[in-house]
């Protein structure tokens, strides 16, 4: 099975090890993994800031870079959800309408691809400790991802999975929201971290590094005894 990688901007620039771990998992499952080095941003930051024309320009390049019949897999529910749900509006009644339909059909968030396409839940991973899962808004609300990540985590040897209070509540990042409304964003992050710690977890796990980056900033500043991990890093542990 051929798989094209879509690596979002912040993963590429700040957390490349997660992308490598995603490749490690996919190759273990027999996938032929490919990466187009010409790829850039999907356009979500520009769109959220109100720059739809600029977003359309970036999106046009994205469509060209991922014009393929292969599966496209990304370690981000946020970016996956944006392409699926907003490209149809951006490119409605345009010359690339059919390309957008194909792109939306082939694009999957990483855990979604594992559970819904490959029908795999046990990767043979090992991570000792207690973990709790944060439902990132992009994964949950934009892609409808809920049970899949939990099924994957339940199969990790040595990991006890516990639910925290308000696991579906936003962490407060929200892209530019965290810049424009910093006090609210920090308060939401604090609540999320406290809920994770109160669950007894050693690891705060999610599908989206944007959420985890935000939460880790609070954790580091306050010396909170918990570690954030992207689910790809968890699934690549111990083998």
From TrEMBL:
It holds the Pfam family CCG. InterPro entries: Cys_rich_dom. Residues 3-82, 132-216 form the Cysteine-rich domain. This is (Fe-S)-binding protein.
């Amino acid at each position: 099975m051929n798989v094209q990688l879509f690596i979002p901007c912040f993963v590429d620039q700040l957390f490349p090890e997660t992308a490598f771990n995603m490749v490690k998992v996919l190759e273990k499952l027999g996938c032929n993994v490919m990466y187009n080095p010409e790829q850039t941003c999907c356009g979500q930051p520009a769109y959220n800031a109100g720059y739809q024309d600029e977003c359309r320009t970036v999106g046009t390049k994205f469509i060209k870079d991922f014009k393929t019949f292969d599966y496209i897999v990304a370690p981000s529910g946020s970016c996956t959800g944006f392409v699926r749900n907003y490209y149809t509006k951006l490119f409605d009644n345009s010359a690339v309408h059919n390309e957008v339909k194909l792109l939306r059909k082939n694009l999957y968030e990483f855990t979604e691809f594992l559970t819904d396409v490959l029908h795999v839940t046990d990767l043979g991973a090992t991570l000792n400790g207690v973990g709790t899962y944060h439902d990132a808004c992009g994964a949950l609300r934009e892609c409808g991802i809920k049970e899949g990540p939990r099924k994957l985590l339940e199969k990790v040897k040595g990991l006890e999975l516990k639910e925290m209070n308000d696991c579906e509540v936003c962490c407060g990042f929200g892209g530019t929201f965290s810049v424009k409304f910093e006090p609210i964003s920090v308060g939401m992050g604090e609540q999320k971290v406290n809920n994770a710690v109160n669950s007894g977890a050693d690891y705060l796990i999610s599908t989206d590094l944007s959420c985890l980056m935000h939460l880790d900033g609070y954790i580091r500043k306050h010396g909170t005894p918990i570690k954030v991990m992207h689910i790809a890093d968890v699934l690549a542990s111990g083998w």
